[in-house]
Design brief:
By secondary structure, this protein is an alpha+beta fold. The chain contains 13 helices and 32 strands. The strands form 10 sheets. Strands 8, 9, 10, 11, 13, 14, 15, 16 and 19 form a 9-stranded antiparallel beta sheet that branches. A hairpin with a 7-residue loop joins strand 5 and strand 6. Helix 2 packs antiparallel against helix 13, helix 4 packs antiparallel against helix 5 and helix 7 runs antiparallel to helix 8. The protein starts with 10 loop residues before the first strand and ends with a helix. The mean pLDDT is about 95.
């Protein structure tokens, strides 16, 4: 679906299709906006905070900011080029209206609110009746606000939080006990503005209209400059740039952490219970994240992310948590909320119990990330260098344990092949860093011995001669798309026969059209899931690295077309219906797209 083509938006049981959401953000929080103009998700003050709007998880209780024509309409939508500022055009029988949405970035000209959503409404032709309704529901819908007026401006208050509803030429706001509504006519050449300034444990700043207009324009200009500075010139550049902009929305600016996704509990199966909170930073994604930043010319983001990663992991050293909070914390208790769930998909979870799992692949990801940073010409300070060497020592003592694997299965632990491969990567990268005198080299002999022992385990216990492929776990007959990472991260060179056989086996067994499933076996959670988009991009990259360029390009073309109308991806797609599944925007999907595009570009050169 191309959102530049005007179509009528639809909802089923009050819920928009997940594919119909665009996202905006300001480096601290993210909002989801449906094609019909409703802001159905917004967490304030931070990306991982409880929500102000969560109608995507409960239409009745979640809260939203609805803005749309009062008559039948069609919608065309786009991002302003090179930005995360959304432009929606409503076309009715009587005229057209354009809405521009942004979570604004502060400028230096005025005192700005702590957080601010601005919506500009412009009449393009004819006369269009418009209505809007702000229904704030704090704390994941659990707490209703008190709505009152301050200096004539409606303000919703709940404990230490307050949000104002500032409207100019957008009708006369009417206050109810827990919402603010209005109607107005959008006339040709007329411009209305609605702003939601927010405060948490600080004074609420009520901006002027001129200040909001300036910040909206400043926000678009800042995003355009950031996009202009990106260095990628290879194939699928538009998709790569949009993925870079989506990834930038997941960067939590105060710390440099990168969230896995902006939302929680969007289902991997409609009506099922595979509903997880992804507003944390996973070590699993770290190598892809740093590599993408470096390839896109995002040196400040790369440095900030590495420093956050090393500081967060210091809290649990030498152990690595599977995930960390965006502020570097380690606690992520998983609880269920009393919400209806997206189209009845319950439980609605916040927090993530995977934080307490053992995942051995994370150690390889950490060493791979540091290694990539140094190969780009950066240095490591003495404390980080020491801890990386100690991490390699720790891998020598733990690699023989079973674990939960990269996919965080909730069944019993196993000897997952990809976990062992990444332990090999950890020691291999440590040896290279020591050889280049970037980390202490006192224990390199031990690292070499254990690296060889890991290889012997993988080659004797984790490979099927019958299928000519590595298998999901030791002594199993199952395949797993994560095995592709053995090639992508360099467990063996691309011309290795066993890795090439694995690529072919994954393609033959786990691929359906452009879609690749993670695995087919059980994982301890009832139900099923869609095709995992990152795995599809990994296969495209693996094909390119094996020299199968035409196949890689063909698959990549299909995958790029799977994005929604504004170029975003969720975690999964239902191969039968094409429906988006899981949280969005999903960082790993966009990271895998960037990595695959870069690899195919390099291979074709």
């Amino acid at each position: 679906m191309n959102d530049s083509v005007a179509t009528a938006p639809t909802r089923l049981d009050g819920y928009a299709e997940l594919r119909d959401y665009a996202v905006i953000g300001d480096g601290r929080c993210v909002a989801l906006i449906a094609r019909d103009g409703a802001v159905d998700w917004l967490s304030w003050p931070d990306l991982d905070s409880p929500t102000l709007f969560a109608a995507v998880l409960d239409q009745a209780r979640g809260g939203s900011f609805v803005l749309r024509p009062d008559v039948p309409y069609t919608v065309a939508r786009r991002y302003l080029p090179g930005t995360n500022v959304l432009e929606t055009t409503f076309a009715t029988a009587g005229g057209m209206v354009r809405v521009t949405d942004a979570l604004t970035l502060p400028d230096t000209a005025s005192l700005a609110p702590g957080r601010e959503l601005v919506r500009r409404i412009e009449g393009l032709s004819g006369s269009v009746p418009m209505s809007w309704s702000v229904q704030p529901r704090f704390g994941y819908g659990a707490r209703l606000p008190i709505v009152a007026r301050r200096a004539g401006v409606p303000v919703a208050i709940c404990g230490a939080e307050a949000v104002a509803v500032c409207a100019w030429d957008a009708g006369q706001p009417q206050c109810t006990a827990d919402s603010v509504t209005a109607r107005f006519q959008a006339e040709p050449g007329a411009r209305a503005l609605i702003a939601l300034p927010y405060a948490y444990q600080e004074p609420l700043v009520l901006p002027t209209r001129a200040e909001c207009e300036v910040r909206l324009d400043h926000t678009a200009a800042t995003w355009r400059q950031w996009s202009h500075d990106r260095t990628y010139t290879g194939p699928w550049r538009d998709a790569v740039l949009r993925s870079a902009l989506a990834l930038k929305l997941l960067v939590f600016a105060p710390s440099g952490a990168v969230a896995a996704a902006a939302t929680c509990s969007l289902p991997e199966e409609l009506g099922g219970e595979r509903n997880w909170d992804y507003r944390f930073s996973w070590i699993r994604d770290s190598a892809f994240t740093l590599d993408a930043f470096l390839k896109l010319g995002c040196a400040p983001e790369a440095t900030s992310y590495l420093w956050w990663l090393m500081h967060a992991s210091q809290l649990t050293h030498p152990h690595l948590n599977v995930l960390y909070r965006l502020n570097g914390g380690t606690q992520a208790p998983e609880v269920s909320l009393p919400l209806a769930g997206y189209r009845g998909s319950t439980p609605v979870r916040v927090g993530n119990a995977a934080a307490g799992q053992v995942q051995l692949d994370t150690y390889g990801e950490l060493l791979q990330t540091a290694w990539l940073y140094t190969t780009a010409g950066h240095r490591l300070d003495a404390d980080i260098a020491r801890r990386l060497a100690e991490t390699a020592d720790f891998v020598c003592t733990i690699w023989q344990q079973p674990d939960a694997g990269i996919w965080e299965v909730r069944s019993s632990r196993e000897h997952f092949t990809q976990s062992k491969m990444m332990c090999w990567i950890a020691l291999d990268r440590a040896l290279d860093l020591a050889r280049r005198q970037l980390i202490p080299d006192r224990h390199t002999a031990r690292w070499q011995r254990e690296r060889q022992a890991i290889a012997e385990f993988v080659e004797t216990r984790c490979f099927s001669e019958r299928l000519n492929s590595y298998m999901r776990s030791a002594d199993s007959d199952d395949l797993d798309a994560s095995l592709l990472l053995g090639l992508l991260h360099g467990y063996r060179p691309p011309d290795d026969g066993r890795l090439r056989g694995t690529v072919s086996a994954v393609q033959e067994t786990l691929r359906e059209g452009p879609y690749v499933s993670r695995y087919l076996g059980s994982d301890g959670v009832p139900g099923r899931e869609g095709a995992f988009l990152a795995c599809s991009f990994w296969l495209a990259e693996a094909l390119a690295r094996c020299g199968r360029i035409d196949e890689a390009v063909s698959l990549m073309d299909q995958l790029v077309d799977l994005g929604n109308g504004v170029g975003l991806y969720s975690e999964e797609i239902d191969p039968t219906t094409g429906a988006f599944l899981g949280n969005m925007p999903q960082g790993l999907s966009h990271l895998a797209l960037i990595s695959a595009a870069c690899a195919i570009g390099e291979a074709t050169r």
